[in-house]
Amino acid sequence: MAIDKAKVAVGFVASGVLLVFFGTLLTFVGPIIIDDQVVKNTVIDPQNQMSYTMWKDVPVPFFMSVYFFSVLNPKEVLLGEKPAVQQRGPFVYRKRIQKDNITFHANGTVSYREYRRYFFEPSMSAGNESEVVTIPNMLVLGAAVMMENLPFPVRLMISATFKTFKEGPFLTRTVGELMWGYDSGLVDFLNKYLPGMLPSTGKFGLFAEFNNSNTGLFTIHTGRDDIRKVHRVDSWNGLTKLSNWNTPQCNMINGTAGQMWPPFMTRETTLPFYSPDACRSLELVYQRDGEMKGIPLFRYVAPRTMFANGTDYAPNEGFCPCRQSGLLNVSSCRHNSPVFISHPHFFNADPVLLDFVHGLKPTEEEHGLFIDIHPLTGVPLNVSIRLQLNLYMKRVSAITETGKIAEVVMPMIWFEESGYIDGPILDTFHTNLVVLPAVMDYMQYGFIALGLATILIACLVHHKVKVSDEERVKGAHDETKKYIKN
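Structure (tokenized):
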């Protein structure tokens, strides 16, 4: 039986039209399908095994790198000379994070406590925890500033107490002791007779209260009712606002808990989060686009206004009393001790701070903090949070331990908390968020291209069949005329 090429061509045209229609449909439906999958996998729900496990146990390796500013001229500092410091480190600790006491609530929120533990990593460190460094003694120099307005006889008694317990203005101890605590007769005395004056009841160390501790009771939105609210803090320790600061704006608890953010971010989106360690909400801003192993990302950094004083940035007036821009006064939530937070080496701070200390060289590459985040899902891919702890020191009359110390904001340590997605988690991320969307793109445009090509070829075939039929009819007509004429 002869094949009707014209009908075949029409069939191919119809098939081509269907392919174009299906491809065009995919261009509209495809993004909707992807967005729907993002929403389903972003909601905090135990049934979303991969995303829930990432949120609960944070399987990404996280590290804290600590750098000490060892004082090179402590005797000269007591005579009023400018401090000279040498950066020592890094001393690297693996940070283990795990959420516990997880409770889901009917209003679309979930409560939990996040516990953290630190483990020293000798192979990643520049030395071991037995290395000895010299830093200001916070118990003496910090207390001196706190007591400067007390009556003169009381300050004399305080100075005598320091001498009794052999506490001097500077400490020369091992890294391990300074980090996690050391025995001190003065600490024991204060804990016994003035309970609550110190942040811990055991040994005194810069990070003693952080190890084997939790960050408080967070209640955050699961995103079940509104994906735009996922991970956002509803309350912390039962509070919806703070009381440390001087204005309602500064006391607000904004953003997330600092680990994940809502999906579908744009370049205008900011990254607000609440930090219990900084006692306030912070906000990062978009800097640039980037890529990590084929996965698109947005880089977010700290704006210059983050630690600006109230004079340079009026909304920060509520965090005062302030000193130079670039310093955050956290004394109100640190037992009134004269402690300031800044970026390492006073990066992005008032340049005058560098004039008071020898040995500081700030650079954005080494001392700027950033978060690289996947904008579609709100999941951080690479994180580096860098902060510095500083002590405000000065001469206080009657407390002879302060000598003739010139007024200075003294850097003590800076630390970097860093982590990035790698291994199987990154591979899964790459497959679901790069490969599959790319395949869908290729499919939709492939269907359209194949459909158009099919229609074009079918039309050409149909035209050729039509021309051939016309020529055959004309030839038969000519033969008939010729036959009649003969």
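The radius of gyration is 34 Å. The mean pLDDT is 87.
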